[in-house]
Amino acid sequence: MTDALETLSPSGGAGEASCCAPKSACCAAPASGPSWWKTIPGRKYLFSTWATVLGGPLLVLIFDRPEALNFVTFAVKAFAGTLPYIAFAVALIAWLKAAGAEAYVGRAFAGRERQAIVLAALFGGLAPFCSCEVIPFIAGLLAVGAPLSAIMAFWLSSPLIDPPTLLITAGALGWSFAIGKAAFAVTLGLLGGTAVALAMRAGAFANPVKVPSSAGGSGCGASPQTGRPVWQFWHEGTRREKFVAELRANAGFLVKWLALAYVLEAALVTYVPADMIASAVGGDGIGAIVISALVGMPAYLNSYVAPPLLAGLMDQGMSAGAAMAFMIAGAVSSIPAMAAVWSLVRPQVFAVYLGLGFFGAVLSGLLFQLVI
C-alpha cells in the first residue's frame, strides 16, 4: 500500500501534494535503501494498489487456472454490488463541496455529539452494509467533516447486524443469539463512539482523515452574498469545475481501494475455506473467547455463512461466548475491510478501530457466555 494516497485531505498531512514549494526545499530526504532498488524500472507501479488488484487474478490464472474464473467472478460481483453505494457517496461529496456546504454539515452536529453517537449506533444496526460496503458512506462523512465519534459508532455497529442477518442468525443459532448480537452491535457502536469522543476532548485525532481532495482545500465556499451554500452549483463555472474535480478524485480513490478489498476477499474465500477458519476457534473458556476474536479479526466469514457453520461447531462443543466473539470480530474487521479502512484514516485511528473491534468482540463473548 505504498501509494496509499497520492493526495491528502486539505486539512494537512504528509504527502507530496501538501508539501511546500519548491519541492527540493522541504521534501528532499536522505537517500535510503539499497541502490539496486532505484534501478528497478517502474518500481512505483510494480508495488502499487492497482498492481495488486490486477496482479492477484493474473497470479491465480498462471498458478491455479481452474480457479481463475471463480476468483474473478466473485471479486467482480462483490464490487458490482457496492457500485451503487460508491456512486451515491461520490456524487454527494462532490455536490456538498461544490455547494460550499461542508461548514454547514459540521455545524449541524455542533452541541449534538451525544445524540449523533446514539443515532449512528442505532442506524448502523438497521443499515444493510457489510464491512466493505460501509466504506463509501464513511468516506463521505469524513469528507464533509462529520464528527469522528459518530462516524466510529456507525462504523462499528453497521457491519454487525441488519434485518436479514438477524433472521439468518436466529434461524441457525436461535433468537437469544440473534438478539444478543444485535444488542452487542449497538453497544459496541455506543462504546466506540464515546471512547473516540473522550479521546478527542483530550486532544487526540486532531487530523484523522486521509480522504483526497482535488482542490487542495481552496475553491468554493458558501455564497459571499448570503453566507449560505449554493445548492444549484451548476450555474457557476467555478463550482461546476469543483464538482467534476471532486467527483473524479473521490471516485478514483474509492474504486481503487474497494477493488483491492474485494480481490483480497476473493483470495480468502478461494484459498481459506470457511469451515477451516471456523474449526480453528473451537473450545471453551475465556481463552477460547480471546482466540476466537483474534482469529475472527483477519478472517473473512460473512454474516450469512457464519451462523450455520458456528451452529455445527457449537453442537461439537464450541462455547456460545467463543461463537459470539468470532462473529463480532470477523464482521467488524476482516483483511478486506482493513485494507479499505487503512485508505481512509491515519494510523492512529486505524489502530483504535482495530482495538475497539477486538475489545468489543471479547467483551461481548464474555458477557454472552455469562448470560447464556
Question: Outline of this structure?
Answer:
The protein is mostly helical and 372 residues long.
Structural topology:
Elements: H1 23-26, H2 35-38, H3 43-46, H4 49-63, H5 65-99, H6 102-108, H7 113-126, H8 135-143, H9 148-157, H10 163-173, H11 175-201, H12 237-271, H13 274-279, H14 285-296, H15 306-315, H16 320-332, H17 335-344, H18 347-371
Q: What structural keywords apply?
A:
18 helices, 372 residues, mainly alpha, disordered N terminus
Q: Please state the average pLDDT score.
A: 77
Instruction: List the total number of helices.
Output: 18
Based on Cα principal axes, name the global outline: globular
Strand/helix succession: HHHHHHHHHHHHHHHHHH
Structural domains: how many: 1
Distance from first to last alpha carbon: 43 Å
Strand content: under 5%
Low-confidence runs of at least 5 consecutive residues: 1-33
Derived from helix and strand composition plus strand pairing, the structural class reads mainly alpha
Count of extended strands: 0
Please give the share of residues in helix: 55-70%
Radius of gyration equals 22 Å
Describe the biggest sheet?
none
Task: Describe this protein's structure.
There is one protein chain. With 372 residues, the protein is an all-alpha fold. The protein has one domain (48-371). The protein has helices at 23-26, 35-38, 43-46, 49-63, 65-99, 102-108, 113-126, 135-143, 148-157, 163-173, 175-201, 237-271, 274-279, 285-296, 306-315, 320-332, 335-344, 347-371. Helix 5 packs antiparallel against helix 12. 43% of the residues are buried. Residues 1-33 have low confidence and may be disordered.
